[in-house]
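Example 3.2
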Amino acid sequence: MPMQRNRTASRGPIRGRSGHTLIELLVATGIGVLAVSAAASLYRMHKQMGMWSADAAAMRDAGATALSLLSQQLEMAGYAPPDSASLAEQTVPALFGCASGDFVRGDGTPVCAPGAAGSDMITVRYVDDAVATWPTSARQPTDCLGQGAGRPNEAAVVVNTFFVAKPDRGAEPELYCLGSGGPTRQPVVAGVERLHLRYWLRGSPAAAEASAIADDRWSEVVGVEVCVLVRGKISVAHARYFDCDGRPQRSADARIRQSFLRYVAIRNQEGAGV
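Structure, written as tokens:
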């Protein structure tokens, strides 16, 4: 009998210790799962915020680069050194634009043809004496792509055309330039989805679209409002943005977009015809 009492007494503490250890294990497992879930959620959030930040920075960089490039070219429009009077005549018109159309080079007279969905095009002409821009290693004037556009150590008329296009179907849109130094267009800024231009004519109270400017009035343009719409790579539900007209828009493909605007004075035409 004493041995039976000892056995009964020894079983109680063993069962008590086993039950207490199981509860601790379950609680610890639950806490571990919560900690791992929280860490994973924090990691995903941090990664997503990093991607958004990088995409926003890339859009700002593309917008600033496009505006800087276009502004530099527009400021050169109509420029000619004092000793290049004969070449200066070939820079007329110094500017020519197309509203939502493709620029077509025919017999030397610029014309517009429908085709570029919602994006404008512009052609800039000026005389480069290998001093106004960076020359080639052979001392040639250069176009927007860095191609030689004339003879070494001689001034030449440079003609640069800017527009937006996609290299392939489904590819990302890019700002392109076609320079007079070669027949092939090349992308210069990636991510630019739309180029929108408005022109200020001398004495006009408001800016006008290219389609409203007669061919013989391009020499009266003294200012250009340049707007580029840049598309990001990340999709966000219910993404909204302001277009080049300042109107709020909802992104149909959920891609983030941002518009960038700058006013550029055409100094070389400000005194023309006065």
